[in-house]
Design brief:
The chain has helices at residues 2-19, 41-52, 83-99, 146-157; strands at 29-30, 33-40, 60-68, 71-79, 105-112, 115-122, 125-132, 135-142. The protein is α+β, with helices and mostly antiparallel strands. The protein has one domain (26-157): TM1622-like (Protein Transport Mog1p, Chain A, 3-Layer(aba) Sandwich). The longest helix is centred in the first third of the chain and has 18 residues, at 2-19.
Length: 158
């Protein structure tokens, strides 16, 4: 009986451990592109703030720089306290991009794997911004293969 109890406890431990696995928002590879550099903490926060010429970064951020022989892509990730907060910040970004002069054009949206994706073009790239739970993501990639990169990325995080 003691052996049976130990087995049950071990199985439950494994099941609960699997449930607590965090999503990896910067996988090593996306659509044939390799993660070459990763910024976290204050380094990522400073990078985002410099990019926007002001203080806009969330308290927790990550940035992944990807490349291959085809070109490069960047994934910007901001973590918020709740799904609602990430959604609110997303809508504020969309409104600002669409109503204030910026280097971004377009502004259409589409659904992909239960995510509403906002698509823009500018600076020679396609840009996709969306939320996933309490996480806000911005992907910038070369126009020619940006949607392939996005599709593979979405598959990896869902």
């Amino acid at each position: 009986m003691k052996r049976f109890t130990q087995i049950i406890i071990a199985v439950l431990f494994i099941l609960f451990s699997a449930c607590s696995v965090q999503k990896v928002y910067l996988p090593d590879k996306v659509s044939g592109f390799s993660l070459n550099k990763k910024l976290t903490g204050s380094e990522a926060e400073d990078f985002v703030n410099r990019l926007h010429y002001g203080t806009v970064a969330a308290d927790e951020n990550e940035i992944g720089f990807y490349s291959s022989e085809k070109g490069s892509a960047v994934i910007y990730i901001s973590y918020y306290n709740s799904d609602d907060e990430a959604d609110q910040i997303l809508l504020q970004m969309v409104e600002k991009i669409e109503n204030v002069p910026s280097p971004f054009e377009g502004g259409d949206s589409f659904e992909l794997s239960d995510h509403i994706i906002y698509r823009y073009s500018g600076l020679g790239q396609s840009h996709f911004v969306f939320s996933s739970g309490n996480v806000l993501l911005w992907i910038s990639a070369d126009v020619m293969w940006a949607e392939l990169f996005l599709n593979d990325y979405i598959r990896k995080i869902t």
